[in-house]
Design goal:
Blueprint lengths: L1 E10 L2 E11 L4 E5 L6 H8 L6 E6 L2 E2 L5 H7 E4 L11 H6 L17 H11 L15 H15 L3 E5 L7 H15 L5 E5 L3 H7 L2 E6 L2 E7 H4 L2 H8 L3 H10 L10
Parallel strand pairs: 3-8, 3-9, 6-7, 7-8
Antiparallel strand pairs: 1-2, 1-4, 4-5, 9-10
Helix pairs in contact: 4-5
Amino acid sequence: MLSVENLSVHFSGKPILSDISFSLEAGQCLMLCGPNGAGKSTLVKAISKAIPYTGKITLLGKDLQSCRHREIARHIGVLSQSVYLSDAFTVAQVVAMGRYAHRSGFLAPEPADTAQRVQAALDMVGLADLGNRVITSLSGGEQQRALLAQVLCQDPDVLILDEPANHLDLLYQKQLFDLMVQWRQRPGKAVIAVVHDLNLARYGGTHGLVLSNGHVAACGTVDQALQDDVLQQVWHMDVRRWLETLHDAWGGESAPNA
């Protein structure tokens, strides 16, 4: 579905990403992991053609550079970390913006199934009764779910989520990652998710790509990518031991407060 070959990104002459290569197939959920500043969000922006890059990105067999933004939006949907929200729109109106790529033109009417798709997307994210609320009246977590509903309403082939669990409590984190699993299991669908929590990466991912200082540190199945030696090299700590310590804090013998 998506192939990235020797992708590099520079800002003001400074390399941000260098020689990144990987592929994504239908049914996969690729977890992008790495420390702050590793280049994860920059990679997401390049894949969605939001920033200039060198190298080659192929989307469904077509060079991304030759694709217009409306065409890309029909196949790639991105939930970004931060989006400006205006109090001029209701939740339903914000979600309906996800159907823009499926209109025949800027002034063309909404597709006939827009209302149905908006409600289905709101149902999926647990906001079924909040469609008429002003978007800025929602909590941070509810706004995040409304923006997720917008991307779901877009119905892309590749769903890209940049730190999707931001502002979400534990219940909705679980529901979100369960939703990701369900999404990738639909025919012709795949997911890329930027995550900091490696527990969530293992929970929801089939594959992993670990970035370090703009380079690929590991890529493969989630087990191959998140091996202990890779984690030690990238985070400069015994990651597994730390995660096990956190688990033990819930009642294990080595719980610090036991």
